[in-house]
Amino acid sequence: MKRVHTQRIDREPKDAQGGPQGPKQGKVCHCESKVASHGVLVARFEIPYPTTKRGMTAWNKRFGVNAYYSGKHYQARKRDADELHQIALTCMRRAKIRKQFVSYPVDVRFFWDDRLDVDNHAVMGKAFVDAMKGYILPDDNRRWLKRVSHEFWDEGKIGVEIWRYE
């Protein structure tokens, strides 16, 4: 069965010798493909980590779940959420993801490369999903968001993939 869907296309630019120059941001396009059993990739974007070791330590301490368990004040939590929303929105725009709602449920997959335990990413994941709400997700309720997963990878940045839920 074929369906029309939105898919993120990544291409690597070539340098003068024809070798890969590094990753290039692709664009979101409408295309036709076979639907795999695991769904169809709708969009993909990446969020950079702080570049220094000290910055990374501060990031993990500020946004990890443990900071919230320790009794972080409401205003600090609100400021954190606002900053994470802005970071995610900026990265979605850089990845040329159009501001257009999906018309089907999705599965969001996060890929992390930091020193936090996998279950310590809940706060950041929630903030990034909230940023997608109103941009590509009509809402983050069970009708539109069927699954969220957190995994590790070795890319030095946060990866976010939005898949059509099948």
Helix-strand blueprint:
Layout lengths: L1 E10 L12 E11 L6 E8 L4 H11 L1 H5 L4 H21 L11 E7 L9 H11 L12 E8 L4 E8 L2
Helix pairs in contact: 3-4
List keywords for this structure.
about 170 residues; about 30% helix; alpha+beta; two-stranded antiparallel sheet; four-stranded mixed sheet; disordered N terminus; 4 helices
Task: Describe the protein in words.
The protein is of the alpha+beta class. It has a four-stranded mixed beta sheet. Strands 1-2 form a two-stranded antiparallel sheet. Helix 3 crosses helix 4.
Compact overview of the structure:
With 166 residues, the chain is an alpha+beta fold.
- Please tell me what the overall shape is: globular
Largest sheet: 4 strands, mixed
Please report which band the strand proportion falls in: under 5%, 5-15%, 15-25%, 25-35%, 35-45% or over 45%. Answer: 25-35%
* Strand neighbour order, sheet with most strands: 3-6-4-5
What's the gyration radius in Å?
Answer: 17 Å
Helix content: 25-40%
- Report how far apart the termini are: 13 Å
Question: How many strands?
Answer: 6
What's the rounded overall pLDDT mean?
82
One letter per element, helices H and strands E, the order comes to EEEHHHEHEE
- Structural class determined from secondary elements: alpha+beta
What is the overall number of helices? 4
